[in-house]
# Entry
Amino acid sequence: SSAVTSSTKIVLNLESLGSLPADEAGPLARYASTIQAQRHDYNGKVLSIRAEDLKSLAIIYDMSPDELTTRLIEWGVLSPGMESVVGFGGD
Ligand code: C2E
Ligand code: C2E
Ligand code: C2E
# Structure
């Protein structure tokens, strides 16, 4: 089954993200920084992002969204037990 569905809430661990090598995590770190700046949300340890944003990031990383999700879990940026949002999406 798919690692990410339309009902999965994506919560990035910013502390893990900050400790990764810049050559791999750089694009994701810049994307997260941009969202923080747009929201004026600078002090969090985590950042909830849109499901749409994962699709954009997958294009940036030239992976499928599922492949990117697996990579983010390996990096410790996503929790393997991601919380589901009740009441959105199908399946
Ligand atoms: P918290 O800030 O005390 O928020 C507790 C819960 O209130 C959140 O649980 C969420 O259900 C709701 N909530 C708070 N702010 C908003 C909001 O702007 N919009 C909506 N729709 N709901 C809101 P959740 O999402 O499980 O988050 C748990 C905790 O994780 C939050 O506690 C916060 O400390 C942190 N967190 C999650 N996402 C972000 C984020 O994007 N930025 C920051 N700075 N912290 C976040
Ligand atoms: P926007 O998309 O026009 O959203 C305006 C406001 O609607 C946001 O102000 C926020 O208060 C609320 N909003 C929109 N979608 C959601 C949502 O899914 N959950 C919650 N909790 N609130 C939502 P805010 O947060 O000050 O963001 C300002 C602008 O920054 C947004 O304007 C958008 O252009 C950008 N932005 C912020 N966070 C994200 C993000 O996670 N992804 C993307 N792609 N853009 C974001
Ligand atoms: P959330 O606030 O609990 O919102 C859950 C889902 O409800 C969002 O999933 C989106 O499908 C829908 N939703 C909530 N508010 C709005 C809105 O104003 N406009 C629209 N069109 N849909 C809305 P999504 O997009 O995957 O976002 C996941 C989480 O990312 C949100 O959970 C929120 O924590 C965060 N987020 C996304 N966009 C923004 C934003 O612009 N500003 C802020 N502060 N947080 C955002």
Notes: The helical segments are 14-18, 22-39, 51-60, 65-74. DSSP finds four helices and two strands in the chain.
